[in-house]
Inverse folding.
């Protein structure tokens, strides 16, 4: 399982929104600039997150986006499933169609164990936890310039 670029950007954007201390809407342009993500690409990603109830959006000059619920109630799993779909936790690591216990690829048994661990981790990791970790450990969300 490899996350799509859309999913990675979605995760980074939700972390960014979590890091904002206000309940105000954050302009998409600000997120785009701070995270070095194409504005138009980011807009499409945020639209999907909004349609699925993870963020709220507001149009207009004072518009933008914000989290739809507390960051302690939004998990990595929610964003991954929304942007990459549920099959991400079922697909073959080598991309072989029909990979299964009956017709395995060379990595099937190892990947099945790893994939289940990742899925469990994503279900337990909230955006509040990630934001707290960023603050405490001085981690980054963007490329080093």
């Amino acid at each position: 399982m490899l996350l799509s670029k859309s999913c990675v950007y979605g995760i980074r954007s939700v972390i960014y929104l979590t890091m904002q201390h206000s309940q105000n809407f954050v302009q998409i342009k600000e997120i785009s600039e701070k995270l070095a993500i194409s504005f138009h690409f980011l807009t499409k990603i945020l639209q999907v997150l909004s349609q699925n109830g993870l963020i709220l959006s507001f149009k207009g000059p004072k518009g933008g986006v914000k989290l739809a619920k507390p960051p302690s109630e939004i998990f990595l799993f929610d964003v991954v499933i929304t942007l990459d779909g549920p099959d991400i936790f079922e697909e073959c690591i080598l991309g072989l169609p029909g990979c299964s216990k009956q017709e395995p690829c060379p990595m099937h048994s190892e990947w099945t164990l790893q994939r289940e661990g990742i899925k469990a981790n994503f279900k337990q990791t909230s955006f509040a936890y990630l934001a707290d970790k960023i603050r405490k450990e001085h981690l980054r969300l963007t490329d080093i310039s």
